[in-house]
Every structure is written in structure tokens, then in C-alpha cells.
Amino acid sequence: MSEILYCNQCQRYTIHPVCRICKGKTVSNKPARFSPQDHYGKYRRALKKETGKN
Ligand SMILES: [Zn+2]
After folding, report:
1. Structural domain that includes position 40
2. Residue 11 to residues 27, 47, 48: CA-CA distances in angstroms?
């Protein structure tokens, strides 16, 4: 099973150690670590659930 890696430059997930788009190094995505994007996503989902809007 491949490790999920993340490119900070392109802000997208990949399985390649080097980003295919910007040729930059990708990093391991550790869910327990500080992640503002995931934090906002959690709020957005909660809000969506309450309002029922898209
Ligand atoms: Zn990239």
C-alpha cells in the first residue's frame, strides 16, 4: 500500500515522492498534526449539516 503524500506547493495529494506538477518534494500527510485546512473543513461540514445548503 502506498503512502499518501502531499504537495504544499500545489496543495494536492499524490503518491509520488516528487510532485508531478511542480517537481517539488512532497511530504507525508499526518492527520494528527496541525492542519488548518482540515480544521476549516470540519467546520464547513458541520455548517452544511445544519443549514442543509451546499
Ligand atoms: Zn506540486
Report:
1. 5-51
2. 11, 23, 23
